[in-house]
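Lines hold sequence, tokenised fold; shown next:
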Amino acid sequence: MRSLDQWLDYQTRLHPQAIDMSLDRLRAVLQRLQWRPPNVPTITVGGTNGKGSVAAFCTSILSAAGYRVGTFTSPHLRDYRERIRVHDRLVSSEELVAAFEKIESARGGIGLTFFEFNALAALLVFEAAALDVWVLEVGMGGRLDAVNVVDADVAVVVSIGLDHQEYLGETLDAIAVEKAGIFRAGRAAVLGGRAPSPALENAARAIGAPLKRPSIEYNYILEGEGWRYRGSRWELPLLPAPALKGHIQFANAACALAALEELDARIVIEADAVERGLRSVRLTGRSQVIKPADGSATWILDVAHNPDAARVLVRNLYAAPHRGKTLAVCGILADKDAAAITAALRDCIDAWWCASIDGARGRSGMALAKVVSNLVSVPVAYADGVGAACAAAAAAARLEDRIVVFGSFHTVGPALDWLEAHAIMPPGES
């Protein structure tokens, strides 16, 4: 019998391509497994940025309302099991191994990618756990993403930006069409953000998916330290500010509420559950602030791995009171637009440490430093790994400084490991 680590290693070698977008293989394996679609309310969350936050808000509010929620997200930061949450816990290694064994037995000669194994396992685990609601985050795109084998009751597209162009298309409209592939006829299509996407709207109308758009079918209004939500079914005044940091989280929270209110014919969510969910929501590695107990430099961790996410990080940095310098620990995959990410952040960073990321999609710290050096006039250094970059930045930082770690899940995850190993992370922070 394989261990979980052995299964994961096996899955990385099973398919000749890391990404092979198609639903045919998954549907064939599900048919062999005699899998039946969920008979509980399901929300699918896609988008270039913000989908992790919206999924986290949905899960937190549903849990506060007393429902058992299955949440599927990707990628993970430190532990593969982060991808599948069974109500109030991570999936167990035993549950994953059991699911992988069923999938392996059923697939025969059908090749599956690492992510397809992951998505299939989530469906089997959730089915066995007898949950009340499923929240499924799209991995990439939408139309051909593994999550799209499920016909969700509500589909959310949080934002449209330039990312994964080699798979989704070179224009925002082309990417929007791919992401709109999660919409279903007669089921609400919830759009996030403040800038409308005509391509998304047209795609929803073309299949008869009722639109829910910000500032039209739903809205949020800031009121002092809190805010008000107005939707097609709910009017919620005096809501607390979301526990997730950054102004964009008001929009993400409103987007989540717009999706949740579409389920109110099947589940009941009281206003106090919404308030509790907003206060208790947690999402590691998204504008996460870590203030060491010893009073040393503050750490801010944000996966920000594309230009739009980098611009949101910039707004959050400028909005946070700060007296010292801002130092960067940055690692960006080779298939990401490092120049555009750097350009977004260059005016608010006083020194850079560029870290190597290993793997097929990795980029060396030296290569990244060359990109950054061409765009900034402040000191730029490089390190062989994220831990080494964190150590160098920490040694250079003064008490009043802050260290921002960003660029990838593959950067923030190792940074969390380093912070924990050096007793910088307060207990329970991660």
